TrEMBL record:
The chain crosses the membrane at residues 31-59, 71-92, 98-118, 139-166, 178-197, 230-249. The lineage of its organism: Bacteria, Pseudomonadati, Pseudomonadota, Betaproteobacteria, Burkholderiales. Belongs to the 4-toluene sulfonate uptake permease (TSUP) (TC 2.A.102) family. Keywords: Cell membrane, Membrane, Transmembrane, Transmembrane helix, Transport. Signal peptide: none annotated. The keyword Transit peptide does not apply. This is Probable membrane transporter protein. It comes from Comamonas faecalis. It is a multi-pass membrane protein.
Amino acid sequence: MLETTLLLVAAFFAGTLNAVAGGGSFLTLPALIFVGVPPVVANATGTVALLPGYVASIFGSREDMEPAPGLTLRAVVLISLVGGVLGAALLLVTSDKAFNRLIPWLLLLATAMFAFGPQLRQWATRQRSANAHPSRARAVAGLLLVSGYGGYFNGGMGILMLALFGLLGQTRLNAMNAIKNLVSTLLTAIAVAIYAAGGIVQWKEALIMMVAATLGGYLGARGARRLPPAVLRWSIVGIGLVMTVLFFLRG
């Protein structure tokens, strides 16, 4: 009963975090490890558990959905699927030791990018002013890299994605958040299929967590639309810093 309660609570708040900023796997991963699941398997199982929450977050933020400059909605879908396949396949051949070493550094990079998002966008604007047309190649390459990261490791994916959209010139945080929810759902769906085929999912724990993650994802997406942009931005930065520090301490 204690383990089940822990997984349910972690999944609910993970679904909420993913809908608002990303990083929900920071909660699901430690919870699953605490109940005895190995790290790589815990990452895959937590990803499966969060899929319904991602789907719910799309419905919660659908009014604000708008692709970043240089991308169409169709391109976002196709690139996300390709990147997700590559990243998930890479996880299947990664050892627990290597996986643990990479996590905090990837989170640190993602948080720093979003924290300095306004400055990075100003730099990107200056670069675009020299070239009248936004670079579609850069947008495609950036989304492909972030999608590969998301297929490999779900933690911090939302923060990295928001940072990318800011670099591409998207200025409305709610629009960035909505398209992030769409990409996260696509990445999670393809990753789940590959993880399941690779036999690294513990379905009992995944199914227990799905219901709570779905509720958290919908409520989080609706609540994010009511937050002032400044509050939302610095909440995202704060979540990223906490995740980074705790993963470094975890070793």
